[in-house]
Amino acid sequence: MTPVSSKPKRPAFIILGAPGSGKGTQGQILGRVPRFFHCACGDVFRSLDTRTAIGKQFVEYSSRGELVPDELTIDLWKAQIDNLSDAHLYKPDIDFLILDGIPRNVRQAEILSRYLDVHQVFHLSCPDRNELARRMRKRALKDNRIDDASDKVIDQRIATYEAETKPILEFYPADRVTTIDATQPPVKVLAEMIQCITHLPIYQEMAKQLA
Ligand code: ADP
């Protein structure tokens, strides 16, 4: 059981979308901006030593296009965030956390709400599944992603997204969810996210404190 944190909840934004919708691309760019810190759950898993028990579990689940079990995922994510915070790379009192790849189901969203104040969820919407599959095949070649390499796993990952991840959109209040057309050029997707963030009261409050 993950213990309840006594620390103040961290301000966060979530980028949510099917595999191939561009979450990582946008998260990485936003994470380069001072006072934003990007944390991609898939990258945390991929950085594991595959000889360890947890590394082996990741390979087992991800190569089938399935989710890694929740307890394991949250514990690993929490440990990573705490390490980054202890090393002062991520500063929870002044940085907005940009989450990509977590939460991936409603249960994870519930557990994360113990630690996070989610101010906005950016839903990168791409209803064209063929376009998603095309992007994933391209990524498999460029980034050596085994989970993007076969059509069977790609189909399974998209099905997992529809069944388990998409319902998260109902978990958050409607005024905290912004849907963005993910088939637009990346710069336009980024512009829409920034436009939304800079108009949020929490952003304006934190910007004033740091001015
Ligand atoms: P993408 O960016 O294409 O959506 P990720 O790199 O985020 O893919 O994730 C790759 C794989 O890692 C997932 O298919 C899943 O097996 C595992 N994974 C990543 N994040 C989570 C999570 N929050 N919960 C469970 N499994 C996860």
Describe this structure in words.
- The protein has 211 residues and is α/β, with parallel strands linked by helices.
- It has a single domain (10-210), classed as P-loop containing nucleotide triphosphate hydrolases (Rossmann fold), CATH 3.40.50.
- It is built from 10 helices and 5 strands.
- It has helices at 23-31, 41-46, 53-62, 70-86, 106-112, 129-143, 151-165, 168-171, 186-198, 201-210, and strands at residues 10-17, 36-40, 96-100, 116-125, 177-181.
- It has a 5-stranded parallel sheet.
- Helix 6 (129-143) packs across helix 7 (151-165).
- The longest helix has 17 residues, at 70-86.
- The chain is globular and about 50 Å long.
- The model has no long low-confidence stretch (mean pLDDT 93).
- Bound molecules: adenosine-5'-diphosphate.
- The site of adenosine-5'-diphosphate has 18 residues, from helix 1, helix 2 and helix 3.
Main sheet characteristics = 5 strands, parallel
Secondary-structure class:
alpha/beta
Q: Strand content of the residues, in percent?
A: 15-25%
The CATH architecture designation is 3-Layer(aba) Sandwich
- Silhouette: globular
Oligomer: single chain
Strand order of the largest sheet: 2-3-1-4-5
| Uncertain stretches of 5 or more adjacent residues | none
Give the ordered list of helices and strands: EHEHHHEHEHHHEHH
* CATH-defined fold name: Rossmann fold
Question: At the first level of CATH, what is the class?
Answer: Alpha Beta
Give the CATH superfamily. P-loop containing nucleotide triphosphate hydrolases
Radius of gyration: 17 Å
Helix count, DSSP H or I runs of 4 or more residues: 10
Bound molecules: adenosine-5'-diphosphate
How far apart are the termini? 40 Å
**Can you give the mean pLDDT?**
93
Helix content estimate = 40-55%
Counted beta strands: 5
> Can you tell me the number of structural domains?
1
